[in-house]
């Protein structure tokens, strides 16, 4: 048993050594969040948030070390596919900018503009076009673009429990389940969590981080950049709620580690099923530290 732990520590050392730039960027991110939290008086919350993510990563790393998943992603034309994914993300962010920064009152907007926006939302934010491109035009199978390895679904549940323990124990005021159920109902809770956020975002993240990592010949850097861009996309939504663009940027930095964690899960298990389950039920609010 002791030899297993020594081998595991050596495994971690090798991974860090092979991904020095990415590891340094993660350290800078963590220190930045802690410094911002200290300034805002939220060090306890931020430390608990980053701590539970780190603990989950170490446990998953150990599990996949003793029971390795040898499957690799099938990527046919990395550069071409990456350009398409980046194009779709760019269009998505343009739509978000129009919806949340340009249009002040969506309900009072001209009907034709609302219909056009909804069509583009369905095609690019949800993202129907990307699914069509990879499944029909590139002839990928569902299991090759994240919908495989369903046996690993159980991984999500201990992580959800750990998130819940941190939320109830340290930041119970951040938990959002009750508010959303009271305001919109249980059905809206499910659609908001899974159909609106988890499935579209994790699907796009998977395609982006795998293709970008291949193009850069650096999986770690591709993973980091993809999650950074995902986090920055939330600035449109956050600034719409507060009209504070600096605050929106800081809030986006706050959710960045969570995006990294979901992308990490997808890469480790070669499936987005665990990430979708955790993301879809992520109303614990542990990432809302700013």
- Supply the number of helical segments: 13
- Largest beta sheet, briefly? none
Beta fraction: under 5%
Mean pLDDT across the residues is 92
Q: Can you write the helix and strand succession as a string?
A: HHHHHHHHHHHHH
Q: Estimate the global geometry from the Cα principal axes.
A: globular
Protein architecture, described:
InterPro entries: Rce1/LyrA-like_dom (IPR003675). Pfam families: Rce1-like (PF02517). One of its GO terms (biological process) is proteolysis. Residues 187-282 form the CAAX prenyl protease 2/Lysostaphin resistance protein A-like domain. The protein is mostly helical and 290 residues long. It is built from 13 helices and no strands. The protein has helices spanning 2-18, 20-40, 43-66, 78-102, 111-125, 128-137, 156-170, 177-184, 186-216, 219-232, 235-242, 245-269, 273-280. α10 runs antiparallel to α12 (245-269). The longest helix has 31 residues, at 186-216.
What attributes does this structure have?
single chain, 290 residues, mainly alpha, 13 helices, transmembrane helix, Rce1/LyrA-like_dom, transmembrane
Describe, in short, the structure shown.
With 290 residues, this protein is mainly α.
């Amino acid at each position: 048993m002791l030899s297993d732990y020594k081998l595991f520590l050596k495994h971690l050392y090798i991974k860090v050594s092979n991904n020095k730039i990415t590891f340094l960027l993660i350290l800078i991110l963590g220190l930045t969040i802690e410094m911002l939290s200290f300034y805002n008086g939220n060090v306890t919350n931020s430390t608990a948030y980053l701590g539970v993510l780190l603990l989950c990563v170490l446990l998953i790393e150990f599990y996949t070390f003793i029971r390795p998943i040898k499957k690799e992603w099938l990527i046919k034309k990395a550069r071409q596919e990456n350009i398409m994914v980046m194009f779709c993300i760019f269009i998505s962010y343009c739509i978000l900018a129009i919806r949340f920064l340009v249009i002040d009152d969506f309900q009072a907007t001209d009907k034709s503009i609302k219909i056009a926006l909804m069509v583009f939302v369905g095609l690019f934010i949800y993202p129907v076009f990307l699914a069509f491109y990879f499944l029909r035009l590139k002839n990928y199978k569902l299991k090759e673009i994240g919908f495989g390895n369903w046996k690993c679904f159980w991984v999500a549940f201990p992580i959800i429990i750990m998130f819940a323990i941190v939320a109830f124990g340290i930041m119970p005021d951040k938990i959002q389940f009750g508010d959303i159920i009271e305001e919109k109902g249980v059905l809206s809770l499910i659609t908001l969590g899974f159909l609106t956020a988890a499935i579209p975002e994790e699907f796009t993240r998977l395609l982006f981080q795998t293709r970008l990592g291949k193009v850069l010949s650096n999986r770690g850097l591709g993973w980091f950049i993809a999650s950074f861009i995902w986090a920055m996309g939330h600035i449109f939504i956050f600034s719409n709620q507060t009209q504070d663009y600096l605050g929106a940027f800081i809030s986006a930095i706050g959710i960045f580690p969570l995006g990294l964690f979901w992308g990490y899960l997808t890469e480790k298990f070669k499936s987005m099923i665990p990430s979708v389950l955790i993301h879809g039920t992520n109303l614990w609010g542990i990432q809302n530290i700013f």
